[in-house]
Write a structure and sequence with these properties.
49% helix, Transcription Factor, Stat-4, 6-stranded mixed beta sheet, Glutathione S-transferase Yfyf (Class Pi), Chain A, domain 2, cytoplasm, single chain, Immunoglobulin-like, 5-stranded mixed beta sheet, elongated
Length: 750
């Protein structure tokens, strides 16, 4: 079943998450129509290879053309129209930057895998629960309801101001009419009656002025209360959700809803401002003793301007945190002289501001002054105008795509004094500033990215990413650049949840409770109830594991890399138990049918995977065999599924056999891995086929040899893996003595 078919079977709450990342940058119609083809292409590789990205873009357009031909025959007018529009959009948007669409599609496929993984997990973790509680949802609905009510109140006050204006115009006309009469006429009874009517009208005017000012005051107060409480909380919650999403958590939504609220409030405040200006006009034409306008209007106008300043300042946000396109799963880790992207949005979407706001990007170098003198500048286009044309949803935003951090040479020359962890614990931020000039107001706006880590070598990436994880897990302070001067401990339960996210976001399948328990034991060195356990930063990333030359995080990162590059399909299918100790492994296998095996990650070798099977001796005793771990070097030469299929051991009597029969608990091996085999055993060429330029072709055959004395423990070197099944070919051309000699040398050539 294709990945897209699995996505379509998800519950509605997960489908809503999928809907959030499909827009005009990569329309869902194309994802649906070309599902199989899209999933068969290597978009991640193309995101770093312009030539490959160009070819894929051309092929994508060809695929769209083929779909157009098909739907044209079916005379589906709506689909024809949409496909023509989409084709034109894709060609226009990505013709000059094909790697950009490769990045977008790669990210979409990865997010789909993460959502599928999250949907398959039976229990939400504490962090995810906290982000999706009913109180937050209820507050969101209340904010939207109150903003709508405020907008209606401001519009109704507009009608009151218009009525007041009409009433005053009538009063002016009647008053001026009386003033134009001769003195003798002013003493008439009718005129005296008219004067009494004018006095009553003036009283009504006074009442209406006070009423309008009171209504304006109430609208201003409601906006003030909403901004100070619920809207501020909503914005802070969105920023926290963004932090969590950056380290692999659930996608954060809600920014469009916030934009709607901010925009409606800004429109209401500007509407109130115009109402106060209209009252000022009425004041110039008519005033009197006890007139409320000159007393109340200045205070109200000052309050409106104050609220507008605050609203605009809070509306300037980093929509997408800094990220290198080459490492989309590692945001906020930036390498010197490598481009990164970052996107900002103004949540107040007013047409008057389109292309009127220019944003400048700089690097904040105020971090860790006592610990390091590393300083950076930004190269590339660091000033751009915000507009509504580049975003699919028409938001007022700007995306910087060609920024590069460059390290400035230090006159102190103390670079050599920095330890290996100092660079990856040093936090900086990308700062942005702009100015809004609108309706006589000038407002300076500033915002900053979440803390970033600057690296100069890709080997620093794993530890830098660990710093980003720890920071965003431990604090919701967006600008604590001295955080690692004294990093706090983190709740183990939340850390384990984040570690599971690393697997679901990076390799498409999260960790279950048993796997997390094993990681908890490895982190703490004991079996603990990790709900209340606090883990130190040093234990996570700086101290070596007991008896090892590497840290926990380096070990885990190597496993992620191994899965991604060599065993991804097997991991996604759930056939790699992976995180299980040797002791637990034997408990699981001891009562199983001989030949039952499981796959686990090596605890002693970085980026290694091994398999262990159970066997039964003639006396009925159970024995276990573990093969020497495979690392990425050996797996680059031979697919792991083929190794499992062709693996054999040679007993003392030289009888080869494949001991792997059932994947734990009882899945026939070929049923589990059959679809991942790259070729059939009989496709391996025989020596008689001849080699290049007259040489006899050679085949690499790692072989395991098991001694008769099975009571002796086997070391990893005793059980070296054997692959492709060419043993029959060897028997045709080599004597048992030669084979025995080759086994002892652990390598065959034919």
């Amino acid at each position: 079943m294709s990945q897209w078919s699995q996505v379509q079977q998800l519950e509605i709450k997960f489908l809503e998450q999928v809907d959030q990342f499909y827009d005009d940058n990569f329309p869902m119609e194309i994802r649906h129509l070309l599902a199989q083809w899209i999933e068969s292409q290597d978009w991640e590789a193309a995101s770093n290879n312009e030539a490959m990205a160009t070819i894929l873009l051309q092929n994508l357009l060809i695929q769209v053309d083929e779909q157009l031909d098909r739907v044209s025959q079916e005379k589906n007018l709506l689909l024809i129209h949409n496909l023509k529009r989409i084709r034109k959009l894709l060609q226009g948007k990505y013709h000059g930057n094909p790697m950009h669409i490769a990045v977008i599609i790669s990210n979409c496929l990865r997010e789909e895998r993460r959502i599928l993984a999250a949907a398959s997990m039976p229990v939400q973790g504490p962090l995810e629960k906290s982000l999706q509680n009913s109180v937050v949802s209820e507050r969101q609905r209340n904010v939207e309801h109150k903003v709508s009510a405020i907008k209606n109140s401001a519009q109704m006050t507009d009608q009151d101001v218009k009525y007041l204006e009409d009433l005053q115009e009538e009063f002016d006309f009647r008053y001026k009419t009386i003033q134009s009469l001769e003195q003798s006429d002013k003493n008439s009874i009718l005129i005296k009656q008219e004067m009494l009517a004018l006095q009553a009208m003036l009283n009504t005017l006074d009442y209406k002025r006070k009423e309008v000012l009171s209504k304006i005051g109430r609208v201003i107060h409601e906006i003030d209360v909403l901004m100070s409480n619920m809207l501020t909380e909503e914005l802070l919650d969105w920023k926290r959700r963004q932090q969590i999403a950056c380290i692999g958590g659930p996608l954060h939504g809600g920014l469009d809803q916030l934009q709607n609220c901010f925009t409606l409030l800004a429109e209401s405040l500007f509407q109130v401002r115009r109402q106060l200006e209209k009252l000022d006009e009425l004041l110039t034409r008519l005033t009197y003793d006890g007139d409320p306008i000159p007393v109340q209007r200045p205070q109200l106008l000052e309050k409106v301007n104050f609220l507008l300043y605050n609203l605009f300042r809070n509306s300037f946000v980093v929509e997408r945190q800094p990220c290198m396109p080459t490492h989309p799963q590692r945001p906020m880790v930036l390498k010197t002289l490598i481009q990164f992207t970052v996107k900002l949005r103004l949540l107040i979407k007013l047409p008057e501001l389109n292309y009127q706001i220019r944003v400048k990007a700089t690097i904040d170098n105020k971090c860790n002054v006592l610990r390091s003198n590393r300083r950076f500048i930004l190269c590339g286009t660091h000033m751009k105008a915000m507009n509504m044309d580049e975003s699919a949803n028409g938001s007022l935003s700007v995306e910087f795509r060609h920024l590069q951090p460059k390290e400035m040479k230090s006159s102190a020359g103390s670079k050599g004094n920095e330890g290996p962890h100092m660079v990856t614990e040093e936090l900086h931020s990308i700062s942005f500033e702009t100015q809004v000039c609108l309706y006589g107001l000038t407002i300076n706006l500033e915002t900053s990215s979440l803390p970033v880590v600057m690296i100069s070598n890709v080997s620093q990436l794993p530890n830098a990413w660990a710093s980003i994880i720890w920071y965003n897990l431990s604090t919701n302070d967006p600008q604590n650049l001295s955080f690692f001067n004294n990093p706090p401990a983190a709740p183990l339960s939340q850390l384990l949840e984040v570690l599971s996210w690393q697997f679901s976001s990076y390799v498409g399948r999260g960790l279950n409770s048993e796997q997390l328990n094993m990681l908890a034991e490895k982190l703490t060195g004991q079996q603990v109830s990790y709900n209340d356990y606090q883990l130190s930063w040093a234990k996570f990333c700086k101290e070596h594991l007991p008896g090892k030359s590497f840290t926990f995080w380096v070990w885990l990162e190597a496993i992620l890399d191994l899965i991604k590059k060599h065993i991804l399909p097997l991991w996604i299918d759930g056939y790699v138990m992976g995180f299980v100790s040797k002791e637990k492994e034997r408990i699981l296998l001891k009562d199983k049918t001989p030949g039952t095996f499981l796959l686990r990650f090596s605890e002693s070798n970085l980026g290694g995977i091994t398999f262990t099977w159970v066997d039964q001796l003639e006396n009925g005793d159970v024995t276990f065999h573990s093969v020497e771990p495979y690392n990425k070097g050996r797996l680059s030469a031979l697919p792991f599924a083929d190794i499992l299929r062709d693996y054999k051991v040679i007993m003392a009597d030289n009888v080869p056999e494949n001991p792997l029969k059932y994947l734990y608990p009882d899945i026939p091996k070929d049923k589990a891995f059959g679809k991942h085999y790259s070729c059939q055993p009989n496709e391996v060429s025989k020596p008689s086929d001849g080699g290049a330029k007259g040489y006899v072709p050679s085949v690499f055959i790692p072989v395991s040899k098991i001694l008769n004395d099975s009571t002796d423990p086997h070391s990893p070197s005793d059980l070296l893996p054997m692959s492709p099944s060419v043993y029959a070919v060897l028997r045709e051309h080599l004597s048992p003595t030669v084979i025995e000699t080759a086994v002892c040398c652990k390598l065959f050539y034919t």
